[in-house]
Amino acid sequence: MRFLITGTAGFIGFHLARRLLAQGHVVHGVDSFTPYYDVNLKHARHDILEGSQTFTPHAIALEDEAALRGAVAAAEPEIIVHLAAQAGVRYSLENPRAYIDANLIGTFNVLEIAREVMPRHLLFGSTSSIYGMDTSSPFRESAAGDHPLSLYAATKKSDEAMSHAYAHLWKIPTTVTRFFTVYGPWGRPDMALFSFVAAILDGRPIDIYGEGRMTRDFTYIDDVVEGLVRLIDLAPVGDKPAVDGDTLSPAAPWRVVNIGNGCPVGLLDFVAAIETHLGRKAILNLMPMQAGDVADTAADADLLDRLTGFRPRTPIDEGVKAFVEWYRSHNRR
Fold first, then answer.
1. pTM of this structure
2. pLDDT in tens, 84-106
3. Residue positions annotated with a catalytic role
4. Which of 3, 130, 166, 331 could form a disulfide with 145 if both were Cys (CB 3.0 to 4.6 A apart)?
């Protein structure tokens, strides 16, 4: 099939594109290479993708509607996977406009073009951050998510609402996937695993927010990609739920699906796994929670399982080991 994937120089988009290329699909990748983190890492990911003859890169910003239209025209996509976004809860306190530009305007442009080209399926990457103040655990897709705690979460919640409206108005089959703390090789330097490993190897202290009492539902990147690949052929159709607990909208060919491991890990246990595989002890700097953070995340992945027969299962020890091996190889340390 022919795919257009936004965010192919990003963590999840890179891994998904590589998997699809290995399966023989044609992939056009869109990315703007923003300097939010080291662009050399982004270019290194794209260099790998460009080793495939069926990959075509487009170095453009989603906010540039004309350029995006050109990329879509070249791609002639059957499937659109929209993963590009300005990510990060904490950075949204420093540079909020980046989230408005990339997440709201960029997603609007993707939706406007999708209604014109009418892909067989539009998949849109969202986040567990939209659950915000929800105290029920594990988080279920049916939760309202009406109390986001960061601008990042608010923009992604808004994107979900926009995608539902477009699915209703233009009958675009749409699946929203909510990711839970994705980690693994080629991960983002601003995320805990990457920054913790780098600091421990340098002998620097690591900041542990929430005094180490927070938990996160860490989800290994290969599990996320497997979930996405299995959902590609399951475009929402009709008005009858496909399975028990389906989130199929009564007004649109639209559903939302969690992709998460379902096994929350305490931050101190997470650090202990890193210490084990590095063979070094961390210097801990216990800090209060930061504005916009949530105390705990946990995914209910039952719907993903019912739809696809798959649920993420990679244990944290195995995933951390794989990341440490990649980090040492990539950074020669």
1. 0.96
2. 999 988 889 899 999 999 999 99
3. 152
4. 130
